[in-house]
């Protein structure tokens, strides 16, 4: 791939530099980078055995990205890091905002790391209501970061980064323990049995033994396993079926339940529903948002509810914001409702007050 005017050099342990002078008949830089990745990714024979290695490439252009050599090397290094972070065996072209993004990431990383130690994470609870009785039967635990310099930060702003840098593992371990502890305290107050829903991340399934975490949280808090619901998404299911099935079976054997979150938004085959020990499906908010005006969204909601019921699953509707939606969902047979119409995610103290008020109503009725 190197022409007579190009240089190839080893610049670090496993870092190589490729300096290409662009002329009329050289390959465009992206094509060259792509060919290098493909060539180095090809299997080869080594000592009589099949071997393979891979490469990631970062590309920067003189004089567009920088004119000093040191700067150019830094740019290439940043682009290389991005290629590696995206899973490797690919190339990335340098972009001017990369340096800033990397700085922002590094700052967020160190603040997140401190946040665990400084106990800045908090759980909010959103009520789940039975459509048959109108009673609060559960709550979903939703993570909040109470950051001293940024106030209450919602998960959309830091969870994607926490998934990228692996911090999601200790954070979610804390969430699971804290949610079980809180739910147990409600039972002790005589408010139970309330089912607590905890969101799991695909990264946890890749990196740690999730069923061992569940065992640990249940035994440390003495929460009745039937009061714990674990929410997984369709992509968890799709990733590495065998080990995921095994983990979910272990969790189901403990007595905890499993919900499929954001149902209908993933690109999964329906085949997994049979294989997995599922208890509930949560119809994604996007179908419920427009179901009143949009007949095809309503048709999807009804079809999913029917599918769920014929498989013996409990059907949960998420993002219910209006009475009209609630009525329609009840008519369609949704068993459990969750959304702003029934209550926004709130601090534990507010949720306890809400449960007490609704129990009192029942007693006076
Ligand atoms: P999700 O699991 O789908 O959670 C529901 C989200 O919808 C929550 O956003 C909730 O505040 C919001 N929501 C609930 N009812 C309504 C409604 O009626 N209308 C509208 N417009 N929104 C509603 P939130 O709390 O910002 O959480 C966002 C996402 O972050 C969650 O989506 C979940 O994927 C993730 N997440 C939250 N907590 C955790 C956690 O502890 N661990 C992991 N791995 N992910 C979490
Ligand atoms: Ca959820
Ligand atoms: Ca959801």
Major sheet size, sense and barrel closure: 8 strands, mixed, barrel
The CATH superfamily title of the largest domain: EAL domain
Distance between the termini: 82 Å
Provide the succession of SSEs.
EEHEEEHEHEEEHHEHHEHHEHEHHEHEEH
The strand line-up of the biggest sheet is: 7-8-10-11-12-13-14-15
Quaternary organisation of the protein chains: single chain
What percentage of the residues does DSSP assign to strands (E)? 15-25%
Counted up, domains total 2
Radius of gyration, Cα only, in angstroms?
26 Å
**Any idea what the CATH architecture of the largest domain is?**
Alpha-Beta Barrel
| Mean pLDDT rating | 91
Number of strands: 16
Which fold name fills CATH's third level, the topology of the largest domain? TIM Barrel
Descriptive labels:
alpha/beta, binds ligand C2E, TIM Barrel, binds calcium ion, eight-stranded mixed barrel, elongated, 14 helices, Alpha-Beta Plaits, 365 residues, two-stranded antiparallel ribbon, 2 domains
Describe the structure in brief.
The chain is an alpha/beta fold and 365 residues long. 47% of the residues lie in helices and 21% in strands. Bound molecules: ligand C2E and calcium ion (2 copies).
Structure description:
This protein is an alpha/beta fold. The protein folds into two domains: 7-96, Reverse transcriptase/Diguanylate cyclase domain (Alpha-Beta Plaits), CATH 3.30.70; 109-364, Alpha-Beta Barrel (TIM Barrel), CATH 3.20.20.450. The chain contains 14 helices and 16 strands. It has helices at residues 29-41, 69-85, 97-117, 155-164, 168-188, 202-207, 210-221, 234-239, 241-254, 271-275, 285-289, 295-310, 323-331, 348-364; strands at 7-10, 16-19, 44-46, 49-51, 57-59, 91-93, 121-130, 136-147, 151-153, 195-199, 228-233, 257-263, 280-283, 314-317, 336-337, 346-347. The strands form four sheets. Strands 7-8-10-11-12-13-14-15 form an eight-stranded mixed barrel, surrounded by four helices. The longest helix has 21 residues, at 97-117. The termini are far apart. The mean pLDDT is 91. One calcium ion is lined by residues 140, 199, 231, 261.
């Amino acid at each position: 791939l190197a022409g007579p005017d190009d240089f190839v050099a080893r610049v670090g342990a496993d870092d190589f530099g490729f300096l290409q002078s662009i002329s009329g008949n050289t390959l465009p830089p992206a094509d060259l980078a792509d060919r290098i990745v493909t060539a180095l990714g090809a299997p080869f024979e080594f000592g009589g055995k099949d071997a393979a290695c891979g490469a990631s490439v970062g590309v920067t252009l003189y004089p567009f990205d920088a004119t000093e050599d040191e700067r150019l090397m830094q740019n290439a290094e940043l682009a290389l890091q991005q290629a590696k972070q995206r899973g490797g065996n690919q190339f990335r072209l340098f972009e001017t905002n990369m340096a800033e993004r990397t700085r922002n990431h590094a700052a967020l990383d160190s603040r997140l790391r401190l946040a665990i130690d400084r106990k800045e994470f908090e759980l909010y609870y959103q009520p789940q209501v039975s459509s048959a009785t109108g009673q609060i039967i559960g709550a979903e635990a939703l993570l909040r970061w109470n950051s001293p310099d940024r106030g209450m930060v919602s998960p959309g702003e830091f969870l994607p980064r926490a998934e990228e840098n692996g911090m999601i593992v200790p954070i979610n371990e804390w969430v699971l323990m804290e949610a079980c502890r809180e739910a147990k305290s409600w039972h002790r107050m005589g408010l139970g049995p309330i089912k607590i829903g905890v969101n799991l991340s695909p990264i946890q399934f890749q990196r740690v033994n999730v069923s061992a975490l569940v065992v640990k949280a249940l035994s440390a808090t003495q929460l009745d396993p039937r009061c714990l619901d674990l929410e997984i998404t369709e992509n968890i299911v799709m990733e590495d079926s065998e080990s995921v099935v095994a983990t979910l079976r272990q969790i189901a054997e403990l007595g905890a339940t499993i919900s499929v979150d954001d149902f209908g938004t993933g690109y999964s085959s329906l085949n997994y529903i049979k294989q997995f020990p599922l208890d509930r499906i949560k119809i994604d908010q996007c179908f419920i948002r427009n179901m009143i005006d949009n007949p095809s969204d309503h048709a999807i909601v009804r079809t999913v509810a029917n599918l769920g019921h014929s498989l013996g699953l409990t059907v949960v509707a998420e993002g219910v914001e209006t009475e009209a939606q609630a009525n329609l969902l009840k008519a369609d047979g949704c068993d459990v409702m969750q959304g702003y119409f029934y209550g926004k995610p709130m601090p534990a103290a507010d949720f306890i007050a809400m449960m007490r008020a609704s129990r009192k109503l029942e007693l006076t009725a």
